[in-house]
């Protein structure tokens, strides 16, 4: 049998990280070789997460883990503030980053693409690993060709740090490529409460709801004469992201450069 792909998970104690650990343990082609989180060092992954991860222990040191475990892939589900340094370190040590943490700029993605190519490794940055969400974005870009007036409402759990979501930004980028740039709404509209009309990218409005009870949800609403069209995706639990994460850990072994968006590996 072919050698397994060695994977470390950064942010492994978090909501997405622990789901990722379980998905890796279940997959026959992947091997969990390291787990990093901010406050855990030298304790058993099995004990903390209630899984069977053999002798793998938590570390709180990304660099040490990359050096000692020699992984092929580093999965990052941490925070916008620490993810950037982790990606830099992974590339420096020739480890392929698979990143679900959101909150980076196009310039940063371009720089990592260049760095990955120079190092001869692949990388994945995916604002959303759920296949249904990718289909939502694809259908939305198609709809925008015919119904160019569009607004997004995205709903997430109240512990999410960045707004709007990476998925909303990515959806708006895809829509802006599919439609002519245009203004929306009344030219003289005004807000009596600041922010009531939401954020704006190229005339399109985006509204971020943060409440307990939600996981990750998005509606893309198109308006036309006498009609509206709503394309909606719901991640009901975090398992929804795992087929995309597992696929990325395998596909990232096959090319050089940073791929931004799981759709580029799927469609
Ligand atoms: P979370 O539950 O807060 O998990 C983040 C974990 O990272 C926590 O355990 C945190 O530890 C740890 N951490 C913080 N700083 C660290 C550091 N310097 N080194 C190592 N670990 C560190 O967050 P989450 O809900 O899993 O989300 C994580 C990220 O994934 C967010 O950016 C979110 O938007 C994104 N996300 C992406 C997708 C996708 O499909 N791409 C889907 C869902 C979420 P402490 O709690 O002790 O600080």
Automatic annotation (TrEMBL):
Record-annotated active site: 156 (proton donor/acceptor), 160 (proton donor)
Start and end residues of each Dihydrodipicolinate reductase C-terminal domain: 132-266
Binding site for (S)-2,3,4,5-tetrahydrodipicolinate: 157, 166-167
Subcellular location: Cytoplasm
GO MF, any single term: NADP binding
GO cellular component annotations of the record: cytosol
GO biological process: diaminopimelate biosynthetic process; lysine biosynthetic process via diaminopimelate
Record carries keyword Cytoplasm: yes
The protein's Enzyme Commission number: 1.17.1.8
Main location: cytoplasm
Pathway(s) served: Amino-acid biosynthesis; L-lysine biosynthesis via DAP pathway; (S)-tetrahydrodipicolinate from L-aspartate: step 4/4
Reactions this protein catalyses: (S)-2,3,4,5-tetrahydrodipicolinate + NADP(+) + H2O = (2S,4S)-4-hydroxy-2,3,4,5-tetrahydrodipicolinate + NADPH + H(+); (S)-2,3,4,5-tetrahydrodipicolinate + NAD(+) + H2O = (2S,4S)-4-hydroxy-2,3,4,5-tetrahydrodipicolinate + NADH + H(+)
Keyword S-adenosyl-L-methionine: no
Residues that bind NADP(+): 38
Annotated NAD(+) binding sites: 11-16, 37, 100-102, 126-129
InterPro entries, per database record: DapB_C (IPR022663), DapB_N (IPR000846), DapB_N_CS (IPR022664), DHDPR_bac (IPR023940), NAD(P)-bd_dom_sf (IPR036291)
Keywords of this entry: Amino-acid biosynthesis, Cytoplasm, Diaminopimelate biosynthesis, Lysine biosynthesis, NAD, NADP, Oxidoreductase
Quaternary organization: Homotetramer.
Matching NCBIfam families: dapB
Protein's name according to its UniProt entry: 4-hydroxy-tetrahydrodipicolinate reductase
Organism: Tumebacillus algifaecis
Gene: dapB
């Amino acid at each position: 049998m072919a050698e397994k792909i060695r994977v470390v998970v950064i942010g492994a104690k978090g909501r997405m990280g622990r789901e990722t650990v379980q998905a890796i343990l279940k997959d026959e082609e992947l091997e969990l070789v390291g787990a990093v989180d901010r406050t855990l060092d030298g304790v058993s992954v099995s004990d903390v997460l209630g899984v069977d991860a053999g002798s793998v222990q938590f570390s709180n040191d990304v660099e040490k883990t990359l050096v000692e475990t020699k992984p092929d892939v580093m999965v990052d589900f941490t925070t916008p503030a620490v993810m950037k340094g982790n990606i830099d370190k992974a590339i420096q040590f020739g480890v392929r980053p698979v990143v679900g943490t959101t909150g980076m700029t196009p310039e940063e993605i371009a720089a990592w693409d260049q760095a990955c190519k120079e190092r001869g490794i692949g990388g994945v940055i995916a604002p959303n690993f759920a296949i249904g969400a990718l289909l939502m974005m694809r259908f939305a870009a198609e709809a925008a060709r015919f119904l160019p007036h569009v607004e997004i409402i995205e709903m997430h759990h109240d512990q999410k740090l960045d707004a709007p979501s990476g998925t909303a930004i990515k959806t708006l980028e895809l829509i802006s490529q599919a439609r002519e740039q245009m203004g929306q709404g009344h030219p003289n509209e005004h807000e009596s409460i600041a922010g009531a009309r939401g954020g704006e990218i190229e005339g399109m409005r985006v509204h971020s709801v943060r409440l307990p009870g939600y996981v990750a949800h998005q509606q893309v609403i198109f308006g036309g004469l006498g009609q509206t069209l709503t394309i909606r995706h719901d991640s009901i639990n975090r398992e929804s992201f795992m087929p995309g994460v597992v696929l990325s850990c395998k596909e990232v072994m096959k090319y050089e450069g940073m791929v931004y968006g799981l759709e580029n590996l799927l469609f």
